[in-house]
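TICKET: design request
STATUS: open
ATTACHED STRUCTURE:
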């Protein structure tokens, strides 16, 4: 078996302190910083620029530029060049798939991640980063030992060293910025603002942050013995916390027969609590077991705690599945419950393997202490990567599965029309939910259809003030031809037109924007213009929203004035960009203007 310390110090670019390796890491850090600055600039400017104008491209690109260079920093000099290149290509494809699906699956009309850069739904980037970390430390040890499955001691050494190295690199970068701010404050005291101005410029702050992080990665790699010493101290301290966590978990489980489970279920977060406890036990068990070598054998008291904690995992995971089953039976599937179920499945894999390792000596004398834990960790790591890929891709999209289950519950009567969460379909389940909501508006059940139509015109998930209010006829200042029939009919409190109650507050004009021969309605308020059109059922719905425009050096125009003076015109295809006059052109769902041209008469 290849010695880990020797393997990590020998690489394709020479030893860790070689000039070639230093140069490679600095180039990676600087290139990442420049690329991220360009990406930030496209999204932060007043006029959104490419690629920020294409959410399906910007979201994946943001994840790739943040994470792939970090993988390259961790792999360069440690992996063989061919392995590293193939792994970087695979990591890029993995992030591109997850990022594209995360953005593309969202509904354009919702107020959510899709409405602003980086357009990514949470917590997908966090899970993607965890999957990359796990995947990297499955591939690196195998490449170091030149075999498909490496020794467990190599997996342990590389993963825990990388964790310490990552923490120290982040700390070094943070300390760098603390000192910069301190220096800026010192210079500012004597009337010199150049440093404060410099660190406030994104073209400096973003590249220098990435560059300092790459420097920190290299410095911690050079001081390999120091990193191992820090890791050993951290593992020793954490391992003794296993005693506390084992006592707490055992006491909790022992008390349940006397207290009952009602209090646990009433928290509404029972699954999250017990899964968190199980995760803490899994981490602490590994801090005590470490690489399993005889020279790292923990004291007797810790070995006993490891066995007890490994057995306690099973009842904790059973409680997690029990709580999930109750919630799903009562309220159906949601994306959060599907993710929790996936975490419980992973927890079950750990519980089975760790429980077997802890109990094996009772029927197999002379068995190595907790040795099956090693195989469990490697297998479960592969399962974790596969689960993340499935959850955040079309394979097992939680939103799609949740929508199908919720609509099925409504159709079979498990959820009554008055209790069904139509707003979940409107705001929290992306395009799949929006499509299901449109289908419900055509339901043969009049109550379902009415409630679905009311939810389809909402623009705020949590707005409750309209509920229960009597219908009233909105008041519009009409410009041009009379508004189409039905648009001015009385509406309920959940309709956006309900707020148009004072003269001049809402200005409306009928205009055929998409050339289909049927008029749409542009409804302008002080800070937004909303495009209304009939759906296939003849119901008026919002189709596009035009954010409040701003052009540098000019006063913000009022969209109502553009309608009153007839300066509005179609600027793009269905649904169009609108020119409001005075050089401002706005795009549906954009918070900033799409472009600013010189005002009339400007030279």
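STATUS: resolved
RESOLUTION: sequence designed for all positions
ATTACHED SEQUENCE:
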């Amino acid at each position: 078996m290849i010695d880990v310390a020797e393997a990590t110090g020998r690489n394709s670019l020479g030893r860790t302190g070689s000039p070639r390796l230093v140069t490679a890491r600095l180039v990676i850090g600087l290139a990442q910083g420049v690329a991220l600055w360009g990406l930030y600039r496209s999204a932060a400017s007043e006029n959104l620029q490419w690629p920020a104008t294409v959410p399906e491209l910007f979201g994946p690109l943001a994840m790739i530029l943040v994470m792939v260079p970090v993988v390259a920093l961790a792999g360069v000099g440690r992996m063989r060049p061919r392995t590293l290149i193939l792994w970087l290509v695979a990591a890029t494809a993995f992030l591109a798939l997850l990022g594209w699906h995360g953005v593309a699956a969202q509904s354009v009309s919702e107020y959510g991640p899709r409405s602003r850069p980086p357009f990514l739904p949470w917590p997908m980037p966090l899970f993607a980063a965890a999957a990359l970390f796990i995947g990297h430390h499955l591939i690196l040890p195998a490449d170091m030992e030149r075999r498909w499955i490496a020794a467990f001691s190599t997996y342990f050494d590389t993963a825990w060293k990388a964790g310490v190295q990552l923490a120290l690199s982040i700390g070094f970068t943070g300390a760098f910025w603390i000192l910069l701010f301190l220096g800026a404050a010192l210079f500012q005291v004597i009337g010199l603002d150049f440093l404060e101005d410099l660190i406030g410029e994104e073209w400096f702050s973003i590249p220098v942050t990435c560059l300092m992080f790459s420097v920190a990665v290299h410095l911690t790699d050079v001081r390999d013995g120091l990193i191992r010493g820090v890791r050993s101290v951290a593992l020793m301290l954490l391992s003794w916390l296993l005693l506390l966590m084992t006592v707490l978990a055992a006491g909790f489980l022992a008390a349940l027969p006397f207290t009952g489970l009602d209090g646990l279920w009433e928290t509404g977060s029972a699954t999250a609590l017990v899964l968190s406890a199980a995760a803490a036990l899994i981490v602490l068990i590994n801090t005590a077991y470490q690489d399993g070598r005889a020279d790292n054998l923990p004291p007797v008291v810790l070995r006993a705690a490891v066995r007890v904690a490994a057995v306690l995992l099973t009842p904790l995971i059973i409680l997690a599945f029990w709580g999930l089953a109750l919630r799903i039976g009562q309220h159906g599937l949601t994306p959060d419950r599907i993710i929790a179920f996936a975490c419980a499945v992973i927890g079950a894999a750990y519980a089975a393997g760790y429980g077997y390792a802890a109990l094996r000596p009772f029927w197999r004398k002379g068995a190595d202490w907790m040795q099956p834990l090693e195989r469990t960790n490697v297998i479960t790591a592969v399962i974790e990567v596969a689960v993340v890929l499935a959850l955040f891709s079309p394979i097992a999209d939680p939103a799609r599965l949740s929508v199908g289950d919720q609509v099925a519950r409504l159709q079979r009567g498990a959820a009554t029309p008055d209790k069904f969460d139509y707003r979940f379909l409107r705001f929290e389940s992306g395009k799949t939910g929006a499509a299901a909501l449109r289908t419900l508006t055509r339901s043969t059940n009049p109550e379902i259809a009415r409630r679905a139509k009311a939810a389809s015109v909402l623009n705020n998930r949590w707005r409750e003030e309209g509920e229960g209010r009597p219908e009233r006829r909105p008041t519009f200042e009409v410009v041009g031809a009379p508004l189409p029939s039905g648009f001015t009919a009385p509406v309920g409190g959940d309709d956006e037109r309900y707020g148009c109650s004072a003269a001049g507050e809402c200005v409306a004009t009928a205009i055929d924007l998409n050339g289909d021969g049927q008029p749409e309605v542009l409804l302008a308020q002080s800070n937004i213009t909303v495009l209304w059109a009939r759906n296939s059922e003849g119901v008026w719905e919002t189709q596009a929203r035009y954010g409040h425009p701003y052009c540098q050096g000019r006063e913000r125009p009022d969209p109502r004035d553009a309608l009153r003076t007839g300066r509005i015109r179609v600027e793009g295809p269905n649904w169009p960009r609108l020119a409001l006059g005075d050089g401002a052109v706005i795009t549906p769902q954009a918070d900033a203007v799409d472009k600013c041209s010189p005002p009339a008469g400007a030279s």
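CLOSING REMARK: The chain is about 60% helix and 5% strand. The two ends are 75 Å apart (CA to CA).
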